[in-house]
Amino acid sequence: xxxxxxxxxxxxxxxxxxxILLSSCKADFLxxxxxxxRKQPMILKVDQRGRVDSHPVKLPDSRLSKGYLAGTGMNYHxxxxxxxxxxxxxxxxxxxxxxxxxIETGTLSAGDRLPAEKxxxxxxxxSRPTVREALVALEIAGFVEIRTGSGTYIIQRGRLLxxxxxxxxxxxxxxxxxxxxxxxxxxxxxxxxxxxxLAAVEATIREMETMILAGEHSRAADQKFxxxxxNVSGNSVLAELVSNLWQGMFSPMFYKMSELTGLIANxxxxxxxxxxxxxxxxxxxxxxARAAMRRHLKSxxxxxxxxxxxxxSGKGSAV
Length: 319
Description:
Arc Repressor Mutant, subunit A, Four Helix Bundle (Hemerythrin (Met), subunit A), mainly alpha, two-stranded antiparallel ribbon, disordered C terminus, 319 residues, three-stranded antiparallel beta sheet, 55% helix, 7 strands
C-alpha cells in the first residue's frame, strides 16, 4: 500500500513529522490501515525508506480542556473551532497597558517618577504624542499623577488594579482626522454659503468673543462654528462626520490634555483663526477657506505637541 509513496522520497530525505487530526470522515480508513484510535490526534513519523511509525499527540491541558488541536484552530472532530479573539487596541492604550502592568508587578512603585517623555518614546518605540496620550489616559484612570514641570509619578493603589478602560480616540488622532476632513468641508462651504449661512456662522464668532471676555470656556460656540460650516457643505455624510469628531473633543482625554498644555488659555488665538476662516467664506474663496481651516487645526495640534512636553519631564526608571 505504501509502495507508491516510497518513490516520492529522495535519498537524502529527513524524517518528516506530520500532525494528523482524525476527522470522522477519515477515521475508519486510518483506523484500519494504521490502527489509530478514532479522533485521536497522532504524530506520524515517516523515514526515508517509507516506514511509518505513530504515537498520540500530547497537548497542553489548557488546550485539551478546550478541545483544540494546538495551532490548527480545529477540535478533535475535525471541525473549525472558535479562535481566540483578536483585540485591536489603539497604540496609546497599548503603551498605557504596558506601564500599568509594570505597576501591577511591582516594577514601578508608588512615588516612582517615570522617565522623561523622550526616553519613554525611545524605550517603547513609539512617538512622543503617543506617550503623552498614554500618560493622560493613565492619569484619568488613576494610576499616575502628572505634575506640571516636575514629571509623572506613580500613585499608591490598592492590591487589585483595574484594567485600563478605553478612553476613546487620542487627541492627536482626532485632530488629524479633522485636518483631513474639515479643510475640504470649508472649501465646499465657501462655494455654497448664502447670506443667512454667513450670518449664522458670524453669530458663533460673536458668541465666542462674549464667552472669552467673561472668562468662560468658549468650546460650545467653537463647536457650533465648525458644525455650521459642515452643514453648509451640502454633504450630510461629511456633516455627520464633523459632528461625531467633535464629540471626541468633549472627552475627558482631550479636556485633560487641553488643560495640561494650556490650550484652553489660547482661546484668543482660536478666535482670530475663526475670523480668518469666516473672511474666506464671506468672499466665497474655496482655496482660502481650505487653507485657513487647515492652519487653524494645525495650530491646535502644535499647541498640544509643543507644550505637553513640559509636564512629562524627569529622570525615572526604565519601563
